[in-house]
Specification:
- The protein has 262 residues and is an alpha+beta fold.
- The chain has helices at 79-89, 107-112, 152-164, 181-208, 218-227, 230-251, and strands at residues 32-34, 40-42, 51-57, 60-66, 73-74, 99-103, 117-125, 128-136, 138-139, 143-147, 169-170, 174-178.
- Strands 3-4-6-8-7 form a 5-stranded mixed β-sheet. A 3-stranded antiparallel β-sheet has the order 10-12-11, with no helix packed on it. It has a two-stranded antiparallel sheet with strand order 1-2.
- Helix 4 packs across helix 5 (218-227).
- The longest helix has 28 residues, at 181-208.
C-alpha cells in the first residue's frame, strides 16, 4: 500500500549518533584546556607536579620534566638512561630538544590514544617552552593488538616491534602481545627516542639551519616544512632512527644497563 503513514519508519536515524544523539557525552579526549590566565594547553602538555632537572651537554641546556608513573606503568627508562643515550649520540645529531618530558597518561588517554612518545615543535609546559620529546608511560602486562590484515606501514611497525622483543601470539583476528619491561625499554629508549630526534634533525635541517633551510626567511621555511605530507616527515624520522641505531649497535654503545634516577 502506498500513501500510508507508518510512524515506525518516519526516521530510522532517531536515537542514533547520526541524528546527534549522545554526541555531547562522547568519551573523547579534550584537545585543549584553558588555564586561569586564559592560555590554551594541549592535553599532552599538562603534567601533574613534575620533578624538574637541569641537564647540560656542552653549551646545550635542557630541562627534564618527570611525572612519577602510576603503579603498573613504566617508561622503560629513567632520565639517567636518556642522559646516557644523549651523551653517546651527541656527535651524531645536529640538535637536542629543549625539553624531555616523562608523562603519565590518564586512563582514557591510554585507552583511546596510546603512543610511545611524541616530538613537539613548540611545547609549553607551564613556564618551560621550546622543542620537546615526550615519553609516555606504558601499562605493563596490557595487551597490544595488531590486526592480521595490515597495511604496509602497519606491517613495517609490526616488524619493528618484533625486533624490539615483543612476543606476539596469533589469535583468530589479531596478533597479540603483552607489554613487558624489557620490550618497552627497547621500543622507547632505543627506537622511539631516536625517531623523535629524527624529527628534530629534519626540522633543524630544513628550518633552523640557515645554510640548509628551505628559505632564508625562517617563517617561510617553517610554513614550507609543515606543508610537506606527514608521511614524508615520518619516513625521514624512521630512516634517521634506523641509521642512528645501526651506528650505535656497531659501536657497542647500545644496549646498556638501566641506570636508576638520582
Amino acid at each position: 500500500m502506498t500513501g500510508v503513514w507508518r510512524p515506525e519508519r518516519r526516521n530510522r536515524r532517531i536515537g542514533t549518533k547520526a541524528s546527534g544523539f549522545s554526541k555531547s557525552n562522547d568519551m573523547r579526549i579534550p584537545e585543549s584546556w584553558v588555564d586561569k590566565h586564559g592560555n590554551y594547553t594541549l592535553y599532552f602538555e599538562r603534567l601533574e607536579t613534575p620533578r624538574v632537572e637541569n641537564v647540560t651537554f656542552g653549551e646545550c641546556k635542557m630541562k627534564f620534566l618527570y611525572e612519577t608513573p602510576r603503579e603498573g606503568f613504566s617508561y622503560g627508562c629513567s632520565p639517567a638512561d636518556v642522559v646516557k643515550l644523549l651523551t653517546v649520540v651527541s656527535s651524531l645529531v645536529p640538535a637536542f630538544p629543549d625539553i624531555v618530558a616523562f608523562r603519565q597518561p590518564t586512563r582514557k588517554q591510554h585507552q583511546q590514544n596510546p603512543v610511545w612518545g611524541r616530538f613537539l615543535y613548540r611545547a609549553e609546559f607551564a613556564e618551560q617552552h621550546g622543542t620537546a620529546i615526550v615519553v609516555e608511560a606504558q601499562a605493563l602486562g596490557s595487551p597490544l593488538k595488531w590486526s592480521k590484515r595490515m597495511a604496509l606501514d602497519d606491517r613495517a611497525e609490526y616488524e619493528r616491534l618484533l625486533r624490539d622483543g615483543h612476543v606476539f601470539v596469533e589469535t583468530r583476528r589479531y596478533q597479540v602481545t603483552k607489554q613487558t619491561e624489557e620490550a618497552v625499554r627497547n621500543t622507547i629508549l632505543y627506537r622511539t627516542f631516536l625517531h623523535e630526534l629524527g624529527h628534530l634533525a629534519d626540522y633543524h635541517q630544513k628550518v633552523l639551519d640557515h645554510q640548509t633551510a628551505l628559505d632564508l626567511d625562517q617563517d617561510v621555511a617553517d610554513s614550507l616544512y609543515f606543508s610537506r605530507p606527514d608521511s614524508e616527515r615520518e619516513a625521514f624520522a624512521h630512516r634517521f632512527a634506523e641509521e642512528l641505531r645501526e651506528t650505535l649497535l656497531e659501536r657497542g654503545a647500545i644496549p646498556f644497563e638501566p641506570r636508576p634516577s638520582a
